[in-house]
Design a protein that fits this description.
- The complex is a heterodimer of chains A (about 300) and B (about 375).
- By secondary structure, chain A is mainly α.
- Chain A has helices at about 5-50, 80-85, 90-120, 125-135, 140-155, 160-165, 180-205, 210-215, 220-230, 235-250, 250-255, 265-275, 280-310, and strands spanning about 65, 75.
- Chain B has about 375 residues and is of the alpha+beta class.
- Chain B folds into two domains: about 5-245, P-loop containing nucleotide triphosphate hydrolases (Rossmann fold); about 250-370, OB fold (Dihydrolipoamide Acetyltransferase, E2P) (Beta Barrel), CATH 2.40.50.140.
- Chain B is globular.
- Classes of the chains: A mainly alpha (about 300), B alpha+beta (about 375).
- The interface of A and B includes residues 206, 208, 209, 211 and 227 of A.
- The complex binds adenosine-5'-triphosphate and magnesium ion.
- The site of magnesium ion has 4 residues of chain B, from helix 1.
């Protein structure tokens, strides 16, 4: 840049002077979006979580009382959060959600990794077709696909009928309204979110690294363990986040496929909002869930960044 | 370099036999019917222009590519079905292929760890290798934090670490500066002498090939054009291609006008209106179309007419390139052909330096030229 002629230097200066709005407009667009549709609703929910429920419209007390003068009085209460601690239902629902999400994430990883690996190593001509097949279910509504599983898993559903007619079982297997059906639903629904980031990661891996490993006397399975697996770690993390986070708050799948023993926090949240009309407690549930999810991620990223620095 | 080693003893069984190996990628022939014999302890160079199939040939030796035809024997054993991880062969990749998630140290130690060596020995060997390539201070860095030349040295250290029986180096020194390159060249020769490892080195730098090798194979378009010691390839090229590719050369097209026996020949070149009287081994009929190849340093340049009667011609200096130890003159012959001549700068100031546009005499001896008939 230092060697630019006076003419181009002037042009650059001009474009900088006139370019401010355009450039900042582009940069600010995502920020405005996040502010309007993420931070603002979050602030509202955060606000509600500290108020108390009343029978009115809206069904909670205002957090700031402006009636006393210029300086508002804050009439916040932690009763919403206190309520979460008082009833063990919430703790059970949280733990259950995290357990179900964790197990589903592991299952997705175990099923998705070989699939992503297979697609990444397939001949280039076939790769796009295989990816298309992974994305294909998205063409049908999520709700309909989850409903379809009821037809497959219920007592006189496709699977049980097939097994009985083959003579493999006499009684239908209980596959609906239990943990099994919830896992099937979550793993089925979120598998593409595991496969796609893993595929993106594995496809860009330099295959000559595996050749070098083999050349140095490393057998294929060890090369996978020492080279492929550590290098695909970012893909594993990304895929696991994409599965784990929505799975924790999942509502539709446990509502449609789950039973009494698969209580998840999304369901509890729904009940608080729509059955009990207790918005402060519902908001507290949402905020607590967010904190429970965000804290480990932030800690993880902190250590990740520190390791990268070394 | 010249000693009584086995490659001069053709009776000894060669360590590596490449027998009629062809490699096709689809319809494209990358390596075309190559046969080579390489002896134990040799430092063999594959020399050729970009895309001529050098890397492909090395990859077949390493077991990373299977020959479409032919076979490769190592120590008398057919290697076709031996996977790369079971071969006593290590390769330094042209792209280095360093493991990005491992430190320099771990990269170098990777091969040793596969052999279940005791950890203490692994550390010692890794250190020794890093010292060799002068990267001791970089042991804890990741490859991404190194310069191109440093990465190349890590790759070199990694391939050397296992003291393989056969070491394949794909352009091992291309990214190093001149000084480090010369140093590493001698280091490679030292290692070779110390360990007796057989080296096959790919390069497109002919000077490097000359310095390093016991023998050179010149490749082009997947075909081996000539195999020989550096001096054989330089002084007795067998084709126009080899003559032109290895070093610089003046080629004069002409016809055989007289050939009293197989060791004397007279060639008349219409191109430059000069008659070449050469002592060269040729068995060619009179009238055969040939080329006379003369290296620039084998032509003498002078302002005064030399004594000799034959192999002499006049010209005008077109360009002079001063290179310190020697000067390169480009001389225009009467027919318009440009001839390249080098002369050592023997004194600090020549009494009568040759200048631009000056009329000069060129002359050469009967042994100066090679006759090429292809
Ligand atoms: N996997 C492959 N598929 C198709 N063609 C290939 C493949 N590998 C190499 N080739 C072709 O074979 C030819 C020889 O390649 P090779 O890599 O052996 O060249 P090289 O002599 O090592 O060249 P350089 O000096 O540039 O490294 C090239 O024309 C290349 O395009
Ligand atoms: Mg190459």
């Amino acid at each position: 840049m230092a060697s630019s002629t006076p003419e181009t230097g002037k042009a650059a200066g001009q474009s900088r002077r006139f370019g401010i709005p355009g450039r900042y407009l582009v940069i600010s667009a995502p920020y405005v979006w996040l502010l309007l549709f993420f931070l603002a609703p979050f602030a509202i929910v955060f606000n509600i979580s500290f108020s108390s429920a009343i029978i009115a419209q809206p069904p909670y007390t205002a957090l700031f009382d402006w009636s006393t003068g210029l300086i508002p009085q804050i009439r916040g209460t932690l009763s919403g959060y206190g309520f979460l601690l008082s009833d063990e239902l919430y703790a059970v629902a949280y733990l259950n959600s995290i357990k179900i999400a964790l197990v589903s994430t592991m299952l997705c990883l175990m099923i998705g990794y070989p699939m992503a690996y297979g697609i990444a190593r397939a001949p280039a001509a076939r790769r796009n077709t295989l990816l298309m097949l992974v994305i294909l279910p998205f063409w049908t509504s999520f709700l309909i696909r989850v409903y379809a599983w009821i037809g497959i898993l219920k007592n006189n559903g496709v699977l049980n009928n097939a097994l009985i007619s083959l003579g493999l079982i006499d009684e239908p297997l209980p596959m609906m309204h239990n943990a099994f059906s919830v896992y099937v639903g979550i793993v089925y629904s979120y598998l593409p979110f595991m496969i796609l980031p893993l595929y993106a990661n594995l496809a860009k891996m330099d295959e000559s690294l595996l050749e070098a490993a083999a050349d140095l006397g490393c057998r294929p399975w060890k090369a996978f363990l020492f080279i492929t697996l550590p290098l695909s770690f970012p893909g594993i993390i990304a895929g696991s986040m994409l599965v784990f986070i929505p799975a924790v708050g999942e509502f539709v799948i446990p509502a449609l496929l789950g039973g009494p023993d698969t209580l998840m926090i999304g369901k509890v949240l729904w009940n608080e909002f729509f059955h009990n009309r207790d918005w402060p407690v519902a908001s507290a549930v949402a905020i607590a869930m967010l904190v429970l999810l965000v804290a480990p991620i932030v800690i993880f990223q902190h250590y990740q960044a520190r390791e990268d620095d070394n | 370099m010249v000693n009584k080693s086995s490659w001069f003893a053709p009776k000894e069984v060669p360590y590596i036999c490449i027998e009629n190996v062809t490699k096709r990628f689809g319809g494209f022939v990358a390596v075309d019917n190559v046969s080579l014999e390489i002896h134990r302890g040799e430092l063999f160079s594959l020399l050729g222009p970009s895309g001529c199939g050098k890397t492909t040939l090395l990859r077949m030796l390493a077991g990373l590519e299977t020959p479409s035809e032919g076979r490769i024997l190592v120590d008398g054993q057919d290697t076709t079905n031996i996977p790369p991880y079971d071969r006593p062969v290590n390769m330094m990749f042209q792209s280095y292929a360093l493991f990005p998630h491992m430190t320099v140290e771990k990269n170098v130690a990777f091969g040793l760890r596969q052999d279940n060596m005791p950890p203490h020995d692994i550390d010692a060997r890794a250190k020794e290798m890093l010292e060799l390539v002068q990267l001791m201070n970089f042991a804890k860095r990741k490859p991404a934090q190194l310069s191109g030349g440093q990465r190349q040295r890590v790759a070199l250290a990694r391939s050397l670490a296992k003291y393989p029986k056969l070491l394949l180096l794909d352009e091992p020194l291309a990214a190093l500066d001149k000084k480090l390159r010369e140093q590493t060249q001698f280091e490679l020769m030292n290692i070779q002498e110390k360990t007796g490892v057989t080296f096959i080195v790919v390069t497109h730098d002919q000077e490097e090939a000359m310095t390093l090798s016991t023998r050179i194979a010149v490749m082009n378009d997947g075909v081996i054009r000539q195999v020989g010691t550096p001096s054989e390839v330089y002084e007795f090229p067998n084709t126009r291609y080899v003559a032109d590719f290895v070093g610089s050369i003046n080629l004069f097209e002409g016809d055989v006008t007289d050939s009293p026996d197989t060791e004397h020949v007279t060639i008349r070149s219409e191109e430059v209106a000069v008659e070449f009287k050469l002592d060269a081994f040729v068995e060619l009929p009179i009238g055969a179309k040939v080329a006379v190849a003369i290296r620039p340093e084998k032509i003498a340049i002078s302002k005064d007419k030399p004594e000799q009667e034959e192999n002499i011609c006049r010209g005008k200096v077109d360009e002079i390139a001063y290179q310190g130890s020697l000067s390169i003159y480009q001389v225009e012959l009467p027919g318009g052909k440009l001839v390249r001549v080098t002369a050592p700068n023997l004194t600090r100031t020549a009494e009568r330096p040759i200048d631009w546009d000056e009329e000069v005499w060129l002359c050469w001896g009967r042994h100066a030229g090679v006759v090429l008939s292809d």
